[in-house]
């Protein structure tokens, strides 16, 4: 049996907005997420609702999207908790918590991830994972993929985002410019390894020298400066998880459901 190195990786399934309750067979798997407690999955806010569909299902314990195994766990998303300052027209605060219909039972294939609480990111390498598009494909990738990326420092990321005059879309969606307290850049300057459509909401994790087997989530896949697979000047942008710890604690860790 192949065990996942990412037992907290969650697939988010979408159904038509018309449907209050939809069957899992109707769900379209279009975003990633991460399990943080028995009841909560962390995701990107822009993933939660679109004009025509919204997140209804969470699937854990799977390496392949559609291949259910003994370890597969499917849970309905019972409630969405958006970060209070999130606005769907902007790229700031791209973070949401999904409360599940019932508690997830942990086992070796389904485990929560730890969250980074300090702003400072000491590592310069991190791992990304997801079922998002690869290359020119328009579809999700059936297998969970992972890759290593470099974390850009604030100065470099600031400069790159400021230079982004060609992406007018971002100027509208970031009215106060790039905000390094809310987000950070990561990517691969040499070969353009990157997250892409479908990876959104999924985690970017690091490991520390002290605890090499413990994944710490520092980012949530959010958007790209110029789509996907950009080189040095066009990294991926990730929600800075550490900035949202007080809110996450309030919503998820203090919610002791019976
Ligand atoms: C997207 O469209 C998307 N390279 C997500 C992440 C990145 C680009 C696009 C980052 O959801």
Automatic annotation (TrEMBL):
Keyword Zinc: no
Lineage: superkingdom: Eukaryota
Segments passing through the bilayer: none
Gene Ontology MF annotations: serine-type endopeptidase activity
Entry keyword Transmembrane helix: no
Gene Ontology biological-process annotations: proteolysis
Domain Peptidase S1: 1-253
Alphabetically ordered keywords of this record: Disulfide bond, Signal
Similarity remark: Belongs to the peptidase S1 family. CLIP subfamily.
Record protein name field: Uncharacterized protein
Taxonomic source organism: Nezara viridula (Southern green stink bug)
